[in-house]
Amino acid sequence: MSILGKIQRTQPLILNLANFVTPQRVADVISFIGASPLMTSEIAELESLVEISDAVVVNIGTISESTYPLFLEACRLANQKAKPLILDPVAVNVPFRASIVKRLSQEVKFNIIRGNSAEIAWFADKKSLNKGIDALESNIDNEHARLAAKKTGAVIIETGKVDIISNGHEEMYVDTDSPLFKINVGCGDMLTAVVGTFAAVSDDLFTAAYEATKFFGEAGMIATKQVQNLPGNFVNSLLDTLYQATQEIK
């Protein structure tokens, strides 16, 4: 059975520490592909929520010093309860966010990290141009992804014109670029949520990361054609395309 088929059969529960810009899009994409989204901002309920979840996705897009304990406890519990832990390191190049991720990484192990080329370069201790949440370089170079995977012990997904998935020893590539992904804020967050959903039902996280990235990218290409390269309705078309793909396997 395919990973997507397993999602339809088991309907995994995905716990998200989302940023406050895109929680609805994250919840929608998880639901549309057949899983159940769960959000929290309360540390007191984390243990019970992580216990019933099948994967934990953390996004540092709007993290603060006051919410750091929430993130640390969620990550710690995910490790303790052997739940796949997925990190979206939004703008980790910014000093405060870098300090947050360094502190988290000293305490917990992330299983999958999904970011753009500048964010992944940070994990590889390499320089890469960025502006806020956006990478300014589009060169395809698997060195940073491989180094990041070796340094972190995580499966790395480096998104760009061609997505690179690395486990530190080998790479797989997804060539499904659309300019509308970059224009629509939150598409990266949505992809990370899809990755978490695929990871929730798979023992092979490298393959799950690749399959999720390919699935999301192919849907984006279809949606781009449907909206004729206009961004306003892209996310709705993307969600519809993802949903239709799940219906085809039932």
Can you tell me about this structure?
By secondary structure, the chain is an alpha/beta fold. It has a single domain, classed as Ribokinase (UDP-N-acetylmuramoyl-L-alanine:D-glutamate ligase), CATH 3.40.1190. It contains 11 helices and 10 strands. An 8-stranded mixed β-sheet has the order 2-1-3-4-5-8-9-10, with helices on both faces. Helix 4 links the parallel strand 3 (55-59) and strand 4. Helix 2 packs parallel to helix 11 and helix 9 crosses helix 10 (205-226). It is globular, with a radius of gyration of 17 Å. The termini are close together. The relative contact order is 0.15.
Spell out the key features of this protein.
globular; kinase; 50% helix; Hyethyz_kinase; 11 helices; UDP-N-acetylmuramoyl-L-alanine:D-glutamate ligase; alpha/beta; 8-stranded mixed sheet; nucleotide-binding; 16% strand
Query: What gyration radius follows from the Cα positions, in whole Å?
Result: 17 Å
Estimate the mean pLDDT confidence.
Answer: 93
Low-confidence stretches: 130-136
Instruction: Note the beta-strand portion.
Output: 15-25%
Query: Span between N and C termini?
Result: 12 Å
Walk across the major sheet and give the strand order.
2-1-3-4-5-8-9-10
Shape: globular
Q: Which homologous superfamily in CATH is the superfamily?
A: Ribokinase
The secondary structure category is: alpha/beta
Order of helices and strands: HEHEHEHEHEHEEHEEEHHHH
**Overall strand count:** 10
How many structural domains are formed by the residues?
1
- Please tally the helical runs, counting DSSP H or I stretches of 4 or more residues: 11
CATH class: Alpha Beta
What is the share of helical residues? 40-55%
CATH second-level architecture: 3-Layer(aba) Sandwich
